[in-house]
Design brief:
This protein has 2 domains: 4-141, Glycogen Phosphorylase B (Rossmann fold, 3-Layer(aba) Sandwich), CATH 3.40.50.2000; 166-316, Rossmann fold (3-Layer(aba) Sandwich). 42% of the residues lie in helices and 17% in strands. The chain has helices spanning 4-13, 28-31, 49-60, 73-82, 96-105, 116-121, 130-141, 156-162, 185-198, 211-220, 234-242, 253-260, 274-280, 301-316; strands spanning 20-24, 39-43, 65-67, 86-92, 108-112, 170-173, 202-206, 226-230, 246-250, 265-269, 288-292. The strands form 3 sheets. A 6-stranded parallel beta sheet has the order 8-7-6-9-10-11, sandwiched between helices. Helix 1 (4-13) runs parallel beside helix 7, helix 4 packs parallel to helix 5 (96-105) and helix 9 runs parallel beside helix 14. The chain is globular and about 60 Å long. The two termini are 19 Å apart. 40% of the residues are buried.
Length: 322
Amino acid sequence: MLSTPAIASFRRSWPNAHIDLLVSDYNEPIVRYNPDVDALHVLPRSATRAQAQALAARLGHGADLAVALAPRTPDYRLALWSRAPRRIGYVYRRRYLSRFAARFMLTQHAISEADPDLADRYPDRPVAHEVHQVLALVRLAGGDTLTDALVLDVGDEARTVARAIPSGAIGVNLAPRWFGDDFGAAASRTLIERLAAEHSDVLVTYGTDVHDEATSLRKAVAARNVVWFGETPALDWAAAIGRCAALITVDCGAVHVAAALGVPVVGVYERRYFRLSSQEWSPWRVPSVVLCKPPPGAETAPLIEDVLSGVRALLRKPSPVV
């Protein structure tokens, strides 16, 4: 999701270029209807090394440039296998093994300062948002027409499905990080019930990764104005979030889906590496409230109150935060 501004900037910088995008089956829905891509290719997560190498080589045949959008050795390897004469990517400064790999697999690479140790060691130094880190690749390639707007089209089918969701609901996106020993199921239930008492409609979304926890909460929460929307196709889930007046979520992809759809976000981030993650992966260009989880075993009531206050504040905000 946070790479879509860079993809749009490549398109704007080279409007006549042919852009192929190679993605996994996991993140394909995010770019299924992306207007800046000429051709979309899916590499299943179950693919063998030989299959990945063959697909990268086929796509790279005749290409001028290969771009690794993530700072990971497997992405550098795909760029290498493309055999493009110019191959670029970026790497975190203190990921020394990845930096070593980048030297051999890429022809150029940018260095990102986003690193947990550096963020804590230099608290006065701001951490670049991932949007800007990936945009640096456009500049590295020589692009000069940049946009930092997230791009997400959920498609007409998903929009039709989402019409069943009450418009203007307060959304809660359940994810595994809600259920650790620093928050938990009981606090999650309290949060949902408090929201239901304060707002006319509450939407709770969830995936297969929290099936058991969501099922238990659904049985425990008696409020009739709570809509449960779970284990659905990714674009239906995104379209449902787009119906919300605000979304409450832990640090996960829901933060960025909501931001792409212009939905204000209350983001609850992990205490560990809070300074880094609350900057690098903060809600992008939407009104937002960023909160930190309590220490494990601490009282959760203050955080619940902060979340409720954050929602109230966002509903009063008339314009995006820049």
